[in-house]
Write a structure and sequence with these properties.
The chain is an alpha/beta fold and 231 residues long. Strands 1-2-3-4 form a 4-stranded mixed beta sheet. A 4-stranded antiparallel beta sheet has the order 6-5-8-7, covered by helices on one side. Helices cover 36% and strands 29% of the residues. α4 packs antiparallel against α5. The mean pLDDT is 89.
Length: 231
């Protein structure tokens, strides 16, 4: 049996926040969860070229707040905000009786975002660029951007081989069992002529806090209380 765990799920509530921030009774939970997944999937497909890293959804009473992190926010915002308004109207049809607010934040250093790096490698593989070349180029760019460690893995029928295999490169440190380590994780799929290849990226950005779990939890509580005041 494998001994692996998701790097983000492993750190939820300690150094990583939830992407969906809301509470619901047991009867409504499934419905709201599927709404979140539907919204995120639609935005990712609609703005595939905008470099969408992640989407945060927050629900407070009858209000629905969506925050989109993108490397090309101008594509999502559109001219004079027309594209955001069109997106807002589409999302309103997906949910019922909700006041929707959409904000777009820029990912200033896309080379340090694991999801964007994984999608870029998958895109290059689909364009028949050598997987090794794409992986090494991504590692070089990420290290130049300031990462302390990078791991990239490609798995599947690489190069059209009859047997599926996996290849990976690791440069620098990658402390996966250290809870205070700030590790970003991204996953993408490359659809090739010979089949599907999976691309996984881990980026180690350093330690978040040196004081241990107590100070990390204290910082998260302060951030949550600040967010409540802003609302």
């Amino acid at each position: 049996m494998g001994q692996k765990t998701h790097p983000v799920g492993f750190r939820l509530g300690i150094t990583k926040p939830w992407d969906s921030k809301w509470y619901a009774p047991k009867r409504e939970y499934g419905k709201l969860l599927h709404e979140d997944l539907k919204i995120k999937d639609y935005i990712k497909k609609r703005y595939k070229v905008a470099g969408v890293s992640r989407i945060e959804i927050e629900r407070i009473a009858d209000k629905l707040k969506i925050r989109i992190y993108s490397s090309r926010p101008a594509i999502i915002i559109g001219r004079k905000g027309q594209e955001v308004e069109a997106l807002k109207k589409t999302v309103e049809k997906m949910v019922s009786n909700k006041e929707i607010t959409i904000s777009v934040d820029e990912v200033r250093v896309p080379e340090m975002d694991a999801q964007l790096v994984a999608e870029d490698i998958a895109f290059q593989i689909e364009r028949r660029v050598s997987h090794r070349r794409a992986m090494k180029r991504a590692i070089d760019n990420t290290l130049k951007a300031g990462a302390k460690g990078v791991k990239i893995q490609v798995k599947g029928r690489i190069g059209g081989a009859e047997l599926a295999r996996k290849e990976w490169f690791l440069v620098g440190r990658m402390p996966l069992q250290t809870l205070r380590a700030d590790i970003d994780y991204g996953f993408a799929t490359a659809y090739t002529k010979y089949g599907i290849l999976s691309v996984k990226v881990w980026i180690y950005k350093g330690d978040i806090l040196k004081g241990g779990k107590e100070e990390i939890l204290k910082k998260i509580e302060e951030d949550l209380s600040r967010a409540d005041k802003e609302v």
